[in-house]
Write a structure and sequence with these properties.
35% helix; alpha/beta; 12 helices; 414 residues; Aspartate Aminotransferase, domain 2; four-stranded antiparallel sheet; homodimer; seven-stranded mixed sheet
Chain lengths: 414, 414
């Protein structure tokens, strides 16, 4: 396969059906932002919606906005909007709390639905908070155990013993970008009698997700990566229709009550997805998310996926051609179909190399101990941005500018 | 006691040592806002801080702002700031999640600290989410029970049997405004060998709170009422120094880990207050809160309390003098020392009366089934606002304008 030159790459941009969407985002012309898988870029609409909520509603109607501006129903309104991006029919998704808190809710729900079983299976390569929360759930349930793929068994498929109640899987691995086959693994989990819980943090908004079609039981995900909701914007939780009214979760706060404003003394959970709510949500952050979600109107998820794979394929091809011999090793699946919307390379000095890239306007991120991670967000990235990123990476490696002493000290927050 | 006339009331404003603080707030000149105990009013500083976070940081530095703008440390920075308002030395308060979620964390912690005991005591008159969450905690602990003051015993003091592990008390009752004696009740709870957990939702920022001095074990509170953080701004949680490193809570997400960015497989909780964090926080909402807290610099909590009591005393005096015979009955303690910063009156048609008040620019709220609730926020209310509110209430009751059919239908969200 011949290496495309600049002209060929510019043609790819000219033919990109999603190219007009870039204008919706607030982007620096001097930078290539390959970290939308960590914090998405704001749209103009997100900023405007936030201003409206802060100035006109909070600063105007004040308390009345809970009714007049629809604040109280935002979690289900935005949940249904996200539902259209992850293959969930209305009434099964709610925006609430954090991914970690939502993992707690759904793992407890799953354990409750399988009373004779006491094991949660998860991945040792999971984003750690999923494991930490699973530990927390296990700590509250006498006899419960957490078993990890890659530690207690080679693969999840090998670990589906009759004592397994729930399996918690990351749809896309946060570090390598490896994509799991959701439909096939969910079917295997169900054959074994267990509940399938999927973490969509690195797939929602990055590629087509079909929760209903795959028969998934529960899912969680974040909204500040590919959904561009803003720093720490509230997470979402999905519960399949068949579990609503059945599933119980112990974070039984007033927003999950069947009649929250009746101020009753005893808890009676809502019969629908609202039961997965707990307390009052951060409305300003939620409204930025509402504005951010508008960009998805009319986006074809098939076109999104095709562009995502093409951007990442181009990146891999150019890096391997132009940066050979400098110690980079691909950590992500080479095959686009097995990959999310990110590409990782291992390097012995990954921290320093990434700092050198960032100082030159190519923004990716570092994951300990030695991963350079690059996210490809099809809504706002161009093929020429990929070329620019590789040119800078080549320059950093060839000039050894990453050895600059100012890149030596690793920050606490990465 | 003679009824003060308008001139006397204007003199009270002229002599108010806090009067200049009103300029920090964005208030409508046509309204009297007596609902700061439900949703506080924005300050100019809060709006500016929010803009800075949204435009310059999210929209500028993007992912780098986690370090450069101090996003990651906001929860402890703001926690310590709130600590100065509630009598907590640094390192014991963190801003995180919602009040409901924080109640869950601290009740689990309390139960874990008293392994031979299995009862949680709470108040039947508590804000309901506290009870719902206590039910949730009890549901995950075999043999645990929830007992309610006013149902299972007349008062908390009578219920402190040797099986009680934790007592959850509201410092100020959300409906009546009744203020509990924190130091005395905490001492009684400790004598009985139990853990004292205080809900400060209606006292933080409303009156002096002395958690350390009272020997409180854990506390929670919200930031969108008297702290003016904005709709649904994140809540706070307090854990006394002596419990840090000892207390365990099962919402063990990555922000509570001793080394969150090491991405370790196993959970090891932070040794300090960060252990009460769970997942990634809503930074935009948190930054509005940061801006809001600036107004407290230099505020004397004694002056705040004196004004709060004086405002409410004036309200009660004027209402009882001018609105006698229209079916209002005081639901709050008459004695200022036993009251928070709010006054409630019972009325058979409380919903309609409140709607009529709101339509005339006097904003209070309704609590089912028959409570008119008025909050008095000393930072921005004037004595003439109290007079205006009573004049309008008198007019609504005398003219029976609350019988207008448009006030007949009660909204779902109140």
């Amino acid at each position: 396969m011949t290496l495309p030159d600049r002209a060929a790459i510019e043609t790819m941009d000219a033919q990109d059906p999603l190219r007009a969407l870039r204008d919706a985002f607030i982007l620096s012309p001097d930078e290539v932002y390959l970290d939308g898988n960590s914090l998405g870029v704001p749209t103009h609409a997100a900023q405007e919606e936030l201003m409206r909520a802060a100035r006109d509603e909070w600063g105007g109607e004040l308390i009345r906005s809970w009714n007049t501006a629809g604040w109280f129903d935002l979690p289900v309104e935005l949940g249904d909007r996200i539902g259209t991006l992850i293959g969930a029919a209305p009434g099964q998704v709610v925006v609430a709390d954090t991914t970690s808190v939502n993992v707690y809710k759904v793992l407890h729900s799953a354990m409750g639905l399988r009373p004779g079983r006491n094991v949660i299976v998860a991945e040792s390569g999971s984003f750690p908070t999923d494991l930490y929360i699973a530990e927390g759930v296990v700590s509250t349930l006498p006899g419960a155990q957490l078993r990890l793929e890659g530690v207690d068994g080679p693969t999840i498929e090998d670990m589906l013993t009759p004592d397994v109640a729930a399996v918690l899987v990351n749809h896309v691995n946060y570090k390598t970008g490896e994509l799991r086959d959701m439909a096939a693994l969910t079917a295997r989990i169900h054959e074994a009698g267990a509940i399938a819980v999927w973490d969509l943090c690195h797939s929602a908004g990055a590629l087509p997700v079909e929760l209903d079609a795959a028969g998934v039981d529960f899912a969680v995900g974040c909204t500040y990566k590919y959904l561009n909701g803003g720093p720490g914007s509230p997470a979402f939780v999905y519960a399949a229709h068949r579990h609503l009214g059945q599933a119980r979760q112990p974070l039984s706060g007033w927003w999950g009550h069947a009649r929250p404003f009746a101020f009753e003394t005893g808890y009676e959970g809502d019969g629908g997805i609202r039961r997965f709510q707990c307390g009052t949500q951060p409305i300003l952050s939620m409204r930025a998310l509402k504005g951010a979600l508008a960009v998805w109107d009319g986006v074809d998820m098939g076109e999104l996926r095709a562009k995502s794979v093409a951007l990442a394929d181009l990146f891999i091809q150019l890096v391997e051609a132009r940066c050979a011999g400098f110690g980079l090793a691909l950590e992500s699946p080479r095959e686009g179909a097995r990959r999310g919307s990110q590409v990782s390379f291992r390097h012995d000095h990954a921290w320093q190399v990434m700092q050198a890239l960032i100082s030159r306007g190519v923004i990716g991120d570092f994951r300990a101990p030695s991963t350079l991670r690059f996210g490809f967000t099809p809504l706002y990235l161009r093929y020429v941005d990929v070329l620019r990123a590789v040119e800078v990476l080549e320059e950093v490696l060839k000039s050894e500018s990453w050895k600059d002493p100012r890149f030596a000290v690793q920050a606490a927050v990465t």
